[in-house]
Every structure is written in C-alpha cells, then in structure tokens.
Automatic annotation (TrEMBL):
Pfam families recorded: Acetyltransf_3 (PF13302)
InterPro entries to which the protein is assigned, alphabetical: Acyl_CoA_acyltransferase, GNAT_dom
Limits of the N-acetyltransferase domain: 6-174
Annotated GO MF terms: acyltransferase activity, transferring groups other than amino-acyl groups
Descriptive protein name: GNAT family N-acetyltransferase
Length: 174
C-alpha cells in the first residue's frame, strides 16, 4: 500500500478543515477525539491552537512537551486523523496515555489509514530521538490494537485504568 497521507501541524490556515473534522465526530455521536489535544472540548479555535503550539516547545501539558499533528490525504487534502506525540513519559502517562495518542475520523475508518498515520508519527518520534515508544490501547479497541501490532508493537502487559482493561505495547525505534 502506498502512503496516501502526510502529517502536518495545525495552523490558522487549517481552521475550517479542523473544525469540520471535529464536527464529524460529534455527528457520529462521539465526544472524544484521540490525538487532538482536546479539540472536542475547545470552544475557541484560536485558544486551542495557541495551547497546541505552546506545549510543543514552551509550556508543559501533563508535565511533558507534546506535538500535535493531523494526517491529511494527499489526493484531496482532507484531514483523515489526529495524532499527539508526547516527547517523554511521566508515571501517570505510563499508566494511561503512552507516547502516542491517535484517532481516525469516523467516515475514514477501516481503510488502512491508522497504520499509515502511526508510521508517520513513529518517524517523528525517531526524529526526536525517542528510542522506544509506548502505546496504550483499551483492550476492547481491536482496530487500535491491530494498528499498534502492524507497526511493530509488542504487547508487554495489561492493566486496569479507571475500571477499563488496557494493553500496553512498546515499539522499538532503534
């Protein structure tokens, strides 16, 4: 499969496309958008974008720096998914969160985009000199588990976080 996606950082120029991406989740009855730095809870795009840009270099969020990206399909420039790459882990993120959170918009799921998007995020992690990446998936989220495994994820343990069973995968980037 050829790589149909690129990843880009959010910007003011993408405001309309990002807001449309967000709305699709709501239209499908979903209230959480993984990998988006909380866009589902944002009321103001400018404030959300300011937060996203600041936590990459200046401000810490949950005691780490993080980069947020959107995956965009090359053929039509449609936002397909969102990714947040945390540059390090805290004890809390080791229990719930990991290095990478990701999501694919509801209308584009089951098309192989998750793997493409995760591979692009892993390349970013490699560029940040992160030697090993942790991904945590809810045990009942089979598509996310398959995506992690397809990108080299090795199941290392399972746990319960806030009453939900999770699996922890590690991907070696060395």
């Amino acid at each position: 499969m050829t790589n149909e996606l690129i990843i880009i950082r959010p910007s003011y120029e993408l405001k309309e496309a990002i807001w449309e991406y967000r709305q699709e989740y709501f239209d499908f009855g979903e209230t959480q958008i993984n990998g988006s730095c909380g866009i589902a809870q944002a009321d103001n795009f400018d404030e959300w974008l300011k937060l996203v840009l600041s936590i990459e270099k200046d401000k810490l969020r949950k005691n780490v720096h993080a980069s947020t990206f959107f995956s965009v399909r090359k053929t039509d420039n449609k936002i397909i998914g969102s990714i947040q790459l945390r540059h390090s882990l805290t004890p809390e993120l080791e229990k719930h969160g990991g290095h990478i959170g990701y999501g694919i918009r509801p209308s584009e799921r089951r098309k192989g985009y998750g793997k493409q998007q995760l591979l692009l995020a892993l390349n970013e992690a490699y560029n940040l000199k992160i030697p090993k990446v942790m991904i945590i998936c809810d045990k009942d989220n089979i598509p996310s588990i398959k995506t992690a495994i397809s990108c080299g994820g090795i199941l290392t343990c399972e746990n319960i976080y806030e009453g939900k069973a999770q699996q922890i995968y590690w991907i070696d980037l060395c």
